[in-house]
């Protein structure tokens, strides 16, 4: 929500030849690019995690430990910083080739994980439906609904993930093979805006699909509203106390 306006400001300043605004917004955009790169690797790691959740069963806790998760996160962010900063010390063609190669690898891994999860969950849903024909219980019906919702939520996120990152992948691949041109510069700018929009779209999808997140947001808003109400009431009470003290002092002076 901050990086995309900064990126648009940078591009407008570039067109208007406003060097000061271009540099300030460019610094914010550079940090945002690093965070976007890290988010891309993180989304791939989440896809692998969901694959392990669905397919490893009871072995999940022994495979995914806190120590391993910590090292994976550190490795991903170091890799993100190294890859994103490559544009500072390497040629633009090499940078685009590296970016395209890493993006293709992440797309293949994420696609494999999500497709396998989708097929497995759909198979489990059929098995549960078969079981319900023999033993119809409220718990079983709830599980079917939960499976169905998780399948479609996963599918929505996967499709948005592809739609947002594929344009930049095509642009990076074209720039690495054909070299840069005015058309590729324009495509790069447009695809970067689409990538930055993904960070806004994903929370909206999760808020729409997951009841737990809606409850958490509602509770947070209620707590903030209650805290502000108490603060205003306390401030009003303090003002009344000050006025009473002034009246008391004035009364003593008159005596």
From TrEMBL:
Cellular component, GO annotation: plasma membrane
Localisation per UniProt entry: Cell membrane
Molecular function terms, GO-annotated: G protein-coupled receptor activity
Transmembrane segments: 27-48, 69-89, 95-115, 155-178, 190-208
Keyword Transmembrane: yes
Residues covered by the G-protein coupled receptors family 1 profile domain: 39-206
Membrane topology: Multi-pass membrane protein
Pfam families: 7tm_1
Coiled coil spans: none
Keywords: Cell membrane, Membrane, Transmembrane, Transmembrane helix
Protein's UniProt name: Melanocyte-stimulating hormone receptor-like
Species annotation: Actinia tenebrosa (Australian red waratah sea anemone)
């Amino acid at each position: 929500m901050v990086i995309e306006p900064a990126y648009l400001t940078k591009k407008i300043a570039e067109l208007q030849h406003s060097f000061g605004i271009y540099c300030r917004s460019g610094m914010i955009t550079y940090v945002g690019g690093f965070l976007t790169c890290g988010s891309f690797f993180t989304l791939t790691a989440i896809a692998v995690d969901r694959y392990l959740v669905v397919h490893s069963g009871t072995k999940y806790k022994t495979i995914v430990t806190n120590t391993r998760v910590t090292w994976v996160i550190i490795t991903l962010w170091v890799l993100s910083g190294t890859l994103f900063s490559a544009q500072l010390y390497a040629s633009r063609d090499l940078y685009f080739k590296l970016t395209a190669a890493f993006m293709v690898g992440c797309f293949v891994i994420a696609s494999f994980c999500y497709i396998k999860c989708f097929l497995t969950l759909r198979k489990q849903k059929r098995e549960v439906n078969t079981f319900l024909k023999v033993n119809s219980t409220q718990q079983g019906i709830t599980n079917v609904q939960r499976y169905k919702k998780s399948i479609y939520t996963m599918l929505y996120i996967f499709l948005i993930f592809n739609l947002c990152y594929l344009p930049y992948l095509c642009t990076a691949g074209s720039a690495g093979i054909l070299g840069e041109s005015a058309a590729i510069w324009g495509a790069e700018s447009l695809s970067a805006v689409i990538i930055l929009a993904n960070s806004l779209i994903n929370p909206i999808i999760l808020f729409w699909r997951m009841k737990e997140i809606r409850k958490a947001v509602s509770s947070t808003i209620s707590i903030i509203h209650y805290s502000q109400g108490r603060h205003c009431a306390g401030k009003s009470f303090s003002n009344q106390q000050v006025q009473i003290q002034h009246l008391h002092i004035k009364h003593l002076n008159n005596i």
